[in-house]
Structures are given as C-alpha cells and as structure tokens.
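Quick one, tokens below:
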C-alpha cells in the first residue's frame, strides 16, 4: 500500500518501522530480494512518542539516515474491507472505490486516506474480481509519516500489517502453491493466505497472546476455561478462512499454516492447532528464510512487522 512514496536512497537496503506489541520496532534488511540479510533489529516497549527519540538515535548510530523507509501502522488504526471493484483502469481504481467505503467508516470521507489492492477472482460470482480497500484517518497516517521523517528516513511507503506479513510469506517455499500465516500480537492478531507473493485473504483475530498465555489457559493444569474457548474459536476461525479461500477462489488447499513467533511463549499452541486443523501446521523460523546474525534474528521475534516492512521491494504492486 504505497500511500506515500519517495525516490530511492543511496543507502543500501530498506528500514522498516512498526507499531506493534505495545511498542516500536525497527529492522533493516539489505541484500537482494532472493538473498535478503537482516542487518539489525530493535524493539522498544512504550508509546510512540516515548520511543521516537530512541528510534532516531538508533537510526543515526547504525548509519541508516536517508535510507529507504517503510512504516507500518498498528492494528486497529485502519479498516480493511473486501469489495468488488468497479470496472475501471488500475490508475482510477483508488478514486473509484472511495465511495464504496463511505458508509463503512464512522468519520467523514474527507478525513480518510484510502488505498486499494486486488486479490484473486471469486468463483462464486462468475469470475468477479475482488479487492481489499484500506481506510485510515489522515491523522493516523500523518503520525506515521512524521515518525519516519523525524528519524530522517526517506519515506517509500506506509503499509498495514497484512502486507508486511505477506512479505514474510513470500520467502517460504510453499508460497507458490499457497501458504497461510498466523500472527498473534499482545492483544490481537491476523491470519492471512498468500500465493505467488500476493495477499489473497486476511481475517482479523480479536484477541492475542495475553488471552492464550500459560498463566490463563490452564494448559499446564489441564483445565478448561475461557482461554481454551478462545483457542477453539481461533482454530475454528482459521479453518473457516482456509475453507473460504479454497471455495471462493477455487484453489487447492494451502500447503501449510505457519505460526509466527510470539513475544509471550505459547508452547502448546502448535500441538493444539495441529490436533484441531486439517492443514499441516509449522513454526515459522526466520533464520531459515533470511540471513542475519543470531542476535538480530532473536530480536526480530518481537518486531516481525518491521522485518516484513523492510522486505518490501520496489516491484510490488500493492
């Protein structure tokens, strides 16, 4: 979602900045698209204003000033709606869909930033095309832009978490066939389906690791409480999403569902989902798809959206 763009900088690689898990993440990726290298990663807990100075200092310390920057706005700061796009040229699509989301937001359209990207064909509606429309308040986008400018990055794009995660999915060997990723933040998450480097489907998860941690799930004691119900709902939402993808887009089942690392460890999540789903479930290991030293890869588990943003390449359409 290239809401704002800029010219490529002379500094090698891309710097991603994300608002996630109650803090601010920073990641820098260099190298080619086929051989990306994570050169550095940091995460600071706290509100954006508190972390902004630390971000600026770290970018200066690492010599990333004027590097290509991609920001990721946080979950809940935007709306993502699936629509049937009108039959207009791609250059006119963004303006055409603005009026389709007018009644889906609770603030004036004049205060909104709107972007759109196409997904697969819906087989249930005689090959009708689908698209996702992203809507955010101008103030939210401008805040993210200001954060990057304050850190002296050259703004290339402002993205959403779903597209940042798409960049991680594109690294997996199963992406050509179709692959799903589950991301769980502290308070909410998302399950996505990608194929051939393109986002096909995204479904919001209204809770995160705080609702599934060992302290509340009863995993260790074998209890069954509200958190176990959330786990059942999580498995059900994932299965429904995968079924919808197969039926609506006439696709073969995804090759696997990958669980992204979580800030709060959830050791029982993988076996529980393996037992409940009809799809192979695997752990996403960043070090298997991207190079980098062990310290940077370990830190990346707390700011995967920043890593995904830093993987954004200039050839992407969305």
């Amino acid at each position: 979602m290239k809401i704002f763009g800029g010219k490529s900088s002379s500094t090698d690689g891309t710097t991603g900045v994300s608002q996630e898990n109650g803090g601010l993440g920073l990641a820098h990726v260099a190298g080619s698209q086929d051989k990306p290298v994570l050169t550095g990663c940091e995460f600071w807990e706290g509100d954006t204003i508190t972390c902004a100075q630390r971000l600026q200092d770290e970018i200066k310390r690492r010599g990333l000033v004027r590097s290509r920057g991609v920001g990721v706005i946080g979950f809940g700061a935007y709306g993502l709606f699936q629509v049937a796009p009108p039959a207009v040229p791609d250059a006119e699509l963004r303006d055409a869909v603005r009026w389709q989301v007018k009644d889906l937001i609770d603030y004036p359209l004049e205060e909104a930033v709107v972007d759109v990207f196409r997904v697969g064909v819906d087989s249930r509606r005689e090959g009708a095309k689908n698209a996702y429309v992203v809507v955010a308040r101008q103030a939210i986008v401008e805040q993210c832009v200001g954060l990057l400018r304050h850190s002296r990055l050259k703004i290339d794009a402002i993205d959403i978490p779903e597209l940042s995660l798409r960049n991680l999915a594109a690294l997996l060997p199963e992406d050509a066939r179709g692959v799903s990723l589950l991301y769980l933040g502290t308070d909410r998450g998302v399950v996505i389906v990608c194929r051939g480097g393109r986002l096909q489907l995204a479904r919001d998860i209204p809770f995160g690791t705080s609702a599934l941690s060992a302290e509340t799930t009863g995993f260790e004691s074998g209890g069954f409480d509200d958190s176990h119900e959330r786990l059942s709902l999580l498995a059900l939402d994932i299965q429904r999403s995968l079924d919808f993808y197969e039926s609506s887009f006439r696709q073969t089942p995804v090759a696997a569902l990958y669980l992204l690392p979580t800030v709060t460890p959830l050791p029982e999540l993988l076996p529980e989902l393996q037992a409940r789903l009809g799809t192979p479930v695997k752990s996403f290991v960043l070090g298997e798809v991207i190079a980098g030293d062990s310290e940077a890869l370990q830190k990346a588990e707390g700011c995967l959206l920043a890593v995904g943003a830093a993987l954004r390449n200039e050839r992407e359409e969305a």
